[in-house]
Amino acid sequence: MDYLLGLFSRFTGSEELARLLFITAIGVSTVLAAVAVLLLLVGLQDPVQRRLALIKRGYSGSSAAQEAPGNLQLLLERVGQRFASADPARTSATQTLLTHAGYRSASAVQVYWAVRLMMPLALLGLAVLVMPLIKVSGVVVLLAVTTVTGLGWLLPSLYVGKRKQARQGRLRAAFPDALDLMVVCVESGLALPTTIERVAEEMAVSQAELAEELALVNAQIRAGITSTEALRQLAMRTGLEDIQGLVSLLAQSIRFGTSVADTLRIYADEFRDRRTQAAEEMGAKIGTKLIFPLIFCLWPSFFLVAIGPAMIGVFRAFGNM
Q1: How do the residues of the chain divide into helix, strand and coil, expressed in percent and rounded to 5?
Q2: pTM of the model
Q3: 104 with 71: CB under 8 angstroms?
Q4: From the record, what ranges are coiled-coil (predicted)?
Q5: Rounded to 5 degrees, what angle do the CA atoms 102, 108, 112 make?
Q6: Phi, psi dihedral angles at 265 (to 5 degrees)
């Protein structure tokens, strides 16, 4: 506060006028912020405007299981629609990233860009309020504000990237069990759509995410999409090369009329071999990865134990001289 008052004093040349301008600026800012929030809330609570926003979003309200979005989500969608990137390639890449992370809603891109825009502004405002309370130089203040703004811009991207990696890791870990269940179901005489439905039901508790993806594949097949196209969309939604390889083999099997059970069994064997090779590769890297812990953790204590007594004896010998 004293820092801001000092700026106003240097600008006006009078301490009383600076205090008056400072109080006036705080009052006007508070009133404008309150009016802006009130207008946003009134606009979102207006039944006509809210209904139009829901219709544009694709929400019909006829299904009891479909929940209407909240006011905050509608606000983020509006902000995202105004400031989202107009480049189709960039929008498609963002949509793919969010789909891999588990965000499949139609407004995910708008909400993502709105959060990336509003978080730097919020952190910048917080930094502007906090920095005058800390007695630091102007260069440090500028550096801190720039760092905070950059972090606000990067944090949503880092969070989505980490969520994508974690989700793909869980799907990759659950895929071998699903593949084994598919082999058993197909060999018992079930058709491919029925097999996918049964596997989704069996894995609904242990592996909910993969079960949800398989249930979506089954729903698409029931809606009239071919099995090959539905599985190809599954590979695109998950972004896993293992599922992409399975889709390619199943597409060839369906196209040329070969046995789906034989195809699944062969791919299961190949997948087990790849898992074994991946485990052996990780095991072979352990020796290289242990170099740095040995250098920085074990060797200093070893040299201390091995050379320490000799160094103490040397110091005592030279000390007696």
Answers
A1: 85, 0, 15
A2: 0.66
A3: no
A4: none
A5: 105
A6: -65, -40
